[in-house]
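INFO batch 0412 | record 1 of 1 | parsing
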Amino acid sequence: TKGARQRLKAVEEFSELGSGFSLAMRDLDIRGAGSLLGSEQSGFINDVGYETYQRILSEAVQELRAGEYSEAFEGEDGEKAPLPPAPDTAVDVEADALLPKGYVSNNTERLNLYRRISDATDAETLDALREELEDRFGALPPEGEQLLEASALRLHGQQLRLPKVVFKNERLFLYLPGEEDDPAFYEHVFHQLLERLATLDQRYVMKDTADGTTRAIVQDVPSLEEATFVAEGLATEEAEEETEAVAA
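INFO prediction complete | emitting tokens
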């Protein structure tokens, strides 16, 4: 379609780092969203939903604050602009992570719960969802436990700014971003992550894949729960270091 071709052209035009805001605004214009603060928002919002629209807009503004207009967003006390938002972390686990139909029988409700779990941004939200599930549907089945563990693992991966985390064959694979893909990772996270990995003694190795991706592999991880525990230990420390680095 004409709109699709325009969006592809916009992607090409704004493909450099830091262009997320421009691309989002161009996409809004192509889809007929109208002005950001006006009333003609129906095209884009109807396509993606209001919550997703708000998230896209928020992420675009955060990128703008952390990028070319960071100086304009500094506080009067010289406080640094926040880091650009961490990319979504893809998680692949060797486990059945789901809400069985026998546990939540209504398809619409089950999909809504999946969305809420996916949208969780912190451990407290996941804990609240666990309590809600147990209160409404009874004790979580093993698959439900694995789903929440996988979701927690994803959150820790995002804290570490990792594009992908995999758990299989009793090993935890932490995929590092490319230097051009996420400079903030190498400025604020990388060295502290290596220090934390070093505390695992001989349990971890660093390896490059055929496509040039670097992975930190933690070995002898017997379960998804243990993998989440290891990632939490790494991420908690990194989150503290990152906060200190930004505030410095």
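INFO post-check: The beta strands are 90-93, 164-168, 171-175, 204-208, 214-218.
INFO record closed
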